[in-house]
From TrEMBL:
<dbReference type="GO" id="GO:0016887">
    <property type="term" value="F:ATP hydrolysis activity"/>
</dbReference>
<dbReference type="GO" id="GO:0005737">
    <property type="term" value="C:cytoplasm"/>
</dbReference>
<keyword id="KW-0460">Magnesium</keyword>
<dbReference type="InterPro" id="IPR004095">
    <property type="entry name" value="TGS"/>
</dbReference>
<dbReference type="GO" id="GO:0046872">
    <property type="term" value="F:metal ion binding"/>
</dbReference>
<dbReference type="InterPro" id="IPR012675">
    <property type="entry name" value="Beta-grasp_dom_sf"/>
</dbReference>
<dbReference type="InterPro" id="IPR012676">
    <property type="entry name" value="TGS-like"/>
</dbReference>
<feature type="domain" description="TGS">
    <location>
        <begin position="279"/>
        <end position="362"/>
    </location>
</feature>
<keyword id="KW-0547">Nucleotide-binding</keyword>
<keyword id="KW-0479">Metal-binding</keyword>
<feature type="domain" description="OBG-type G">
    <location>
        <begin position="2"/>
        <end position="257"/>
    </location>
</feature>
<protein>
    <recommendedName>
        <fullName>Ribosome-binding ATPase YchF</fullName>
    </recommendedName>
</protein>
<keyword id="KW-0067">ATP-binding</keyword>
<dbReference type="GO" id="GO:0005524">
    <property type="term" value="F:ATP binding"/>
</dbReference>
<dbReference type="InterPro" id="IPR023192">
    <property type="entry name" value="TGS-like_dom_sf"/>
</dbReference>
<feature type="binding site">
    <location>
        <begin position="11"/>
        <end position="16"/>
    </location>
    <ligand>
        <name>ATP</name>
    </ligand>
</feature>
<dbReference type="InterPro" id="IPR004396">
    <property type="entry name" value="ATPase_YchF/OLA1"/>
</dbReference>
Length: 364
């Protein structure tokens, strides 16, 4: 499952946002994974293609792609240096695929800012420094650990240490490993360390209710500049409003959004941005039992895409019957599209495209 870790300084609105996420996940009925950790919320990725296919196929069950948000507690100034204190945070964050950093972009005298004043750029620097220091500590520890092997001429160890030494200066300056120019081989060599600052970053600006519907203010503008420099994603939300929306059903929520002048909830914006940032793509299956969206990397070969449904499907892959989503809709379903000659038979080299409606044939 795809996971985003939520970080940020205290009092920026993380819990408020996370409560909305947890509730949205609980609302989205019949998800197979119900017993999850209290700091994990799994939400469906809204997808009109799933809705439209379901209208035609009328399946017993509808399943959207999902994305997991993990509330990463314990990240405060000094988290990386405090012996033991930051361990839980490191444990939680290293298994996520991307990081969502909630940034306070609202004024409210009743809500204390840990540094005394609202300053999104300084907040971002504080958090990013902690993340870089956590990685730096790991880099230093592993350079030392590999020392013996390097001295005995172990080629892999030598190469690994070279990469670690290449990222070390950036981390020393509080910069992310993301900002260091590494080739694919170098990335591969350090992949197993699960560094934090390798992960993509999305800045999630938490604005005031008063900033609706544009959700722009001077704080947000500053974050946008920072995001552009770092090639990081930026979304704006109002956590307070999200919490209210999360308590409504689908129609009420749509009405509420329209009333405040919005077309999409902040949470949906965040979900789509996370999906896009992670370079993901979706294909669909449309059976009578279930219409479902499946998550794959962009340009995923057909057998690997099939493996997302069942691991045995990769080895047992024979061929894929593929119809473009628009053709399924235009011809009123798979059968109609088939009669209109819109079904393509694709082999194992086919790269699955976003929105493909697929039937896999396998020998399993
Ligand atoms: P956390 O420490 O980052 O988890 O922050 P919380 O979610 O607990 O929020 C801290 C305080 O800020 C709470 O009193 C929230 O009600 C308030 N808060 C959070 N988001 C918003 C918002 O969008 N607008 C306003 N006015 N207050 C907010």
């Amino acid at each position: 499952n795809l996971a985003c870790g939520i970080v940020g300084l205290p009092n920026v609105g993380k819990s408020t946002l996370f409560n909305a996420i947890a509730r949205a996940g609980a609302e989205a009925a019949n998800y197979p994974f119900c017993t999850i950790e209290p700091n994990v919320g799994i939400v469906p990725v809204p997808d009109v293609r799933v809705d439209k296919l379901s209208e035609i196929v009328k399946p017993n069950k509808i399943q959207y792609a999902t994305i997991e948000f993990v509330d990463i507690a314990g990240l405060v100034r000094g988290a990386s240096s405090g012996e033991g204190r930051g361990n839980q945070f490191l444990e939680n964050i290293q298994h996520t695929d991307a990081i969502v950093q909630v940034v306070r972009c609202f004024d409210n005298d009743d809500v204390v800012h840990v540094d005394g004043q609202v300053d999104p750029i300084s907040d971002i620097e504080t958090i990013n420094l902690e993340l870089a220091l956590a990685d730096l500590e790991k880099v230093n520890r592993n350079i030392e650990r590999l020392g013996k092997k390097v001295r005995s001429g172990d080629k892999d160890a030598v190469k690994t240490v070279e990469v670690l030494q290449k990222i070390q200066p950036a981390l020393n300056e509080g910069k992310a490993i993301r900002s260091v120019d590494l080739n694919d081989d170098e990335k591969q060599l350090i992949k197993h360390y699960m560094f934090i600052t390798v992960k993509e970053m999305i800045y999630c600006c938490n604005v005031s209710e008063d900033d609706l519907p544009e959700m722009e203010n001077d704080y947000v503008q500053k974050v946008r500049v920072c995001g552009a420099e770092e090639n990081a994603g930026v979304v704006t939300i109002c956590a307070q409003i999200e919490q209210e929306i999360a308590q409504l059903d689908k129609e009420e929520a749509a009405e509420f959004l329209a009333d405040v002048g919005l077309t999409e909830s902040g949470l949906d914006k965040l979900i789509h941005k996370s999906f896009q940032t992670l370079g993901l793509s979706t294909y669909l299956t449309a059976g009578e039992i279930e219409v479902r969206a499946w998550t794959i990397p962009i340009d995923c070969p057909a057998p690997q895409a099939a493996a997302v449904i069942h691991t045995d499907f990769e080895k047992g892959f024979i061929r894929a019957e593929v119809i473009a989503f628009d053709d399924v809709i235009e011809h009123g379903g798979r059968q109609g599209a088939k009669e209109a000659g819109k079904v393509r038979v694709e082999g194992k080299d086919y790269l699955v495209q976003d929105g493909d409606v697929i039937l896999f044939l396998t020998n399993t």
